[in-house]
């Protein structure tokens, strides 16, 4: 686009504006500003300073490590205690059945789910910074633990074959040996994941959760819900099949269930379906009358109590061969050390569990902190989870994290502090030491029903597909890859695949940024995309190019190609056209010289002729034009200036401004490519300016020896400064290309 103003008017306006507003380039600013002198501190001094201790510093570290010392002395008993009691009881009655149910997912006896619902929850009160989340067993983490336990202690190792009969004494002993081994594996994974979390927290690595983006986590948890649902089908139907883990475990589990569908225990199926209907009805009532109910109806514990009573009264285990929870030892187990010989075999799994567990916790903690106006410390949350898992492993617990459903109940029923979590753990403790044996007749199909119903929220995440389709195709791709990879490759390798793909999308975005040509909004110093707004105008002879990405090895070539395409100025094409024109001109000049020689010969041969022959010679001489000029005129030596006039102008662009405002860094490859581009455009008479460089980018370019004496003059503080400078150069003097630069 071009302005309607004449060049003289444009020059006057530009000069008047420059009087009011001086043009700043980086060299001028460097000369006027003086950097602060910073004395580098030796490493020994830094270490000594960090190790220096004072009473104030020790107190700060103690409060940071034990947040309970900070909030408990200020606990407002009258305002908070009643809400915490109600919330603790409501959460506790959910914690009990979920602890039993999720133990099945972890492939350990149900009582270990109760242990995992007590020790870690109690410890989090002292070390956690979130006031509203409920720590304990969670479906995704339990399933990941179970996958490792089944892989390291498969049924074949203990001569357990698929059968619907458990009357054999030897078979019962084999089951006990298998369960004991799986508990050891689960405890070893828990210890290692706790150590990883604790180490990351002490090293201030709380930022690792940012690599688990929301689409990735939601796709991953949706896939985990598919795994969980599939694994519970055999308990719902009352059939015995091998439990699979690893790649394609979902397909193998479905095939195993369908191949044994004729062995379905009708009593188990009826009990399970009845519990599912009751649980879904209870959840619907709680959701619909949420504002009217003082507390949610604890349908899970109600179903557990009723099912336990019916099972004991009708003797379902003996009469209908319904699988029940079985023996629940009374009291707490003595602490024992985990089997550390298993650690090398479960390291990758423990790392994945540690990261996923922390991601679940920090995401829910941030939601509640934002809602209630307080802050949480991500590093301290890592430390708290690490202590809960590593210390709990000595008491036979498996890895825990934040439960979304229980956290919502704890917050909605009036919970104000971590006291609510403590009360819920005390309720579980009472069951363990006093009345745990009462739940021995509880059918396993009831626990499967509880697990399946709690997956309802996760299955709703399939709606993310339509949401991301409308908002971001790249985030949709991350969701789909996380889901598909986790379903078919298993949760551990699926998570690694999803994280790798998410990182690749970041690289893709930097390699495929938006390239734009900017123009000015009239009477302002604001520049926008000329293709997006009608009011935006370009200055004649000036192109402003912007790419919303940094310049580095992965996209430097793409950047240069986009610059040529968007500005319409390709130095290589222009130079090739010039060379072609020069060759054409030389050819025509050669032909002219040949004609001239022929003319001279005719003159010599015509010396004996009369005046009429001379006149013919003159006419012949006049009939040899070349581009509007006579052969005599072109026979002279051709200077570069004459060549410029001889050829038509290749481009009407004299200055290109590179807007570096979105650029965060430049590496050595990017700096070399930028320098090469500047030289290419100088050869065809186009001056390149760089505007909007941040301080770190200028430091990068300086460190990479990008600047020469003339190059630093091309840096400008803002795009508008660069535009004003280019206008003065173009309008004030009719220069050649080299003069502009």
From TrEMBL:
It comes from Pelodiscus sinensis. One of its GO terms (biological process) is sensory perception of sound. Keywords: Membrane, Transmembrane, Transmembrane helix. It is a multi-pass membrane protein. GO terms for molecular function: protein homodimerization activity; secondary active sulfate transmembrane transporter activity; spectrin binding. It comes from the Eukaryota. Its main location: membrane. InterPro entries: S04_transporter_CS, SLC26A/SulP_dom, SLC26A/SulP_fam, STAS_dom, STAS_dom_sf. The keyword Transmembrane applies. The gene is SLC26A5. Residues 532-726 form the STAS domain. It is found in: Membrane. PANTHER family: SULFATE TRANSPORTER. GO terms for cellular component: basolateral plasma membrane; lateral plasma membrane; lateral wall of outer hair cell. The chain crosses the membrane at residues 100-127, 133-150, 185-210, 267-285, 297-320, 340-362, 419-439, 476-508. This is Solute carrier family 26 member 5.
């Amino acid at each position: 686009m071009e302005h309607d103003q004449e060049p003289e008017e444009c020059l006057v306006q530009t000069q008047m504006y420059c009087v009011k507003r001086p043009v700043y380039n980086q060299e001028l600013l460097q000369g006027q500003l003086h950097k602060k002198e910073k004395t580098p501190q030796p490493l020994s001094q830094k270490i000594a300073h960090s190790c220096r201790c004072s009473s104030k510093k020790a107190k700060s570290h103690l409060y940071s490590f034990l947040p309970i010392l900070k909030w408990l002395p200020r606990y407002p008993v009258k305002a908070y205690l009643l809400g915490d009691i109600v919330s603790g009881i409501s959460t506790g009655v959910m914690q009990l059945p979920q602890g039993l149910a999720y133990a099945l997912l972890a492939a350990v006896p149900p009582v270990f789910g109760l242990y995992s619902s007590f020790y870690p929850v109690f410890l989090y009160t002292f070390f956690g910074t979130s006031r509203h989340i409920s720590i304990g067993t969670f479906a995704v983490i339990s399933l990941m633990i179970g996958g490792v336990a089944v892989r390291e202690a498969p049924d074949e190792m203990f001569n357990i074959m698929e059968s619907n009969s458990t009357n054999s004494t030897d078979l019962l002993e084999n089951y006990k040996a298998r369960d004991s081994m799986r508990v050891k594996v689960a405890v070893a994974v828990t210890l290692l994941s706790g150590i990883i979390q604790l180490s990351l927290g002490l090293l201030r690595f709380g930022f690792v959760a940012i690599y688990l983006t929301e689409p990735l986590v939601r796709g991953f948890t949706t896939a985990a819900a598919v795994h969980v649902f599939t694994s519970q089908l055999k308990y719902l139907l009352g059939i015995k099949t091998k439990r699979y883990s690893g790649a394609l475990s979902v397909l193998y589990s479905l095939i195993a269930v369908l191949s044994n569908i004729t062995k379905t225990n009708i009593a188990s199926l009826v009990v399970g379906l009845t519990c599912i209907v009751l649980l879904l009805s209870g959840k619907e009532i709680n959701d619909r009358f949420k504002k009217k109910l003082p507390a949610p109806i604890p349908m899970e514990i109600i179903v557990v109590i009723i099912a336990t009573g019916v099972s004991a009264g009708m003797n379902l285990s003996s009469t209908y061969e319904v699988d029940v929870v079985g023996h629940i030892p009374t009291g707490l187990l003595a602490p024992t050390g985990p089997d550390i010989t298993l650690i090398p075999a479960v390291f990758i799994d423990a790392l994945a569990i540690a990261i996923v567990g922390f991601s679940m916790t920090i995401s829910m903690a941030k939601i509640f902190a934002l809602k209630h106006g307080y802050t949480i410390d991500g590093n301290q949350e890592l430390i708290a989870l690490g202590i809960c898992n590593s210390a709990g492993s000595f008491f036979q617990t498996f890895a825990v994290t934040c439960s979304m459903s229980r956290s919502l109940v704890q917050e909605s029923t009036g919970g104000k502090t971590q006291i609510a979590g403590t009360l819920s753990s005390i309720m579980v403790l009472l069951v363990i030491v006093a009345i745990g044996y009462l739940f021995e007749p509880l059918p396993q199909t009831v626990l499967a029903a509880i697990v399946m119903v709690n997956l309802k929220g996760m299955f709703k995440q399939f709606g993310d597909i339509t949401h991301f389709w409308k908002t971001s195709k790249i985030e949709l791709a991350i969701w789909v890859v996380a889901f598909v990879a986790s379903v078919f490759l298993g949760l551990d390798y699926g998570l690694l695949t999803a994280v790798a793909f998410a990182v690749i999308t970041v690289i893709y975005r930097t390699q495929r940024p938006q390239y734009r040509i900017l123009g000015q909004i009239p009477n302002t110093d604001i520049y926008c995309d000329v293709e997006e707004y009608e009011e935006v105008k370009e200055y004649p002879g000036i192109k402003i190019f912007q790419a919303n990405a940094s310049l580095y090895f992965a996209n430097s070539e793409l950047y240069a190609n986009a610059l040529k395409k968007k500005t319409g100025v390709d130095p290589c094409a222009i130079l090739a056209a010039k060379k072609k024109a020069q060759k054409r001109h030389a050819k025509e000049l050669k032909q002219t010289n040949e004609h001239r020689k022929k003319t001279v010969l005719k003159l010599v041969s015509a010396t004996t002729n009369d005046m009429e022959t001379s006149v013919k010679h003159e006419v012949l001489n006049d009939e040899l034009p070349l581009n509007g000029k006579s052969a005599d005129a072109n026979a002279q030596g051709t200077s570069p200036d004459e060549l410029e006039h001889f050829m038509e102008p290749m481009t009407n662009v004299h200055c290109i401004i590179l807007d570096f405002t979105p650029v965060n860094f430049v590496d050595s490859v990017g700096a070399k490519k930028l320098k090469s581009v500047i030289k290419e455009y100088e050869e065809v008479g186009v001056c390149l300016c760089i505007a909007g460089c941040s301080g770190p980018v200028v430091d990068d370019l300086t460190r990479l020896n990008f600047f020469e004496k003339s190059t630093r003059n091309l840096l400008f503080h803002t795009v508008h400064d660069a535009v004003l400078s280019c206008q003065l150069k173009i309008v004030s003097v009719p220069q050649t290309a080299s003069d502009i630069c």
